[in-house]
Backbone:
């Protein structure tokens, strides 16, 4: 029996009302914006990892997490775990190193997104569909 090493990484759909946080990593080509993400450190819970990554990358505080889904990336050895949470406090302040731009976006006014098929795009599409549905019901 072999137990391969797996590196857990988190993704965060951060809501602020009827908008979600999208950010552009300086390494992304074509102005593509995505969810904040990062690897868990040894001894760190996934919940603590999400809060730390969001705080480090854009300087805001978030509320309780809700699990959304996961996606294996066998090469190199990652497991992406997606969460949703709500903005609690702070103003967006991209770190300027990893994250060069960040903003609050809705279904009809967002920058280019990652290609379909990734967990990030799946979660973004689901968030925008939920926001659109809430607006059509008058919930937003």
Residues:
């Amino acid at each position: 029996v072999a137990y391969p090493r797996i590196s857990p990484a988190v993704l965060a759909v951060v809501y602020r009302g009827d908008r979600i946080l999208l950010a552009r990593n300086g390494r992304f080509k074509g102005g593509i914006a995505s969810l904040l993400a990062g690897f868990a450190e040894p001894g760190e819970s996934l919940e603590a990892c999400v809060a730390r990554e969001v705080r480090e990358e854009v300087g805001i505080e978030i509320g309780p997490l809700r699990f959304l889904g996961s996606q294996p990336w066998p090469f190199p050895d990652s497991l992406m775990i997606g969460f949703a949470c709500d903005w609690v406090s702070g103003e967006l302040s991209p770190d300027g190193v990893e994250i060069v731009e960040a903003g609050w976006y809705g279904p009809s006014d967002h920058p280019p997104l990652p290609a379909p098929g990734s967990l990030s795009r799946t979660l973004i599409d689901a968030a925008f569909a939920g926001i659109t549905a809430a607006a059509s019901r008058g919930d937003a």
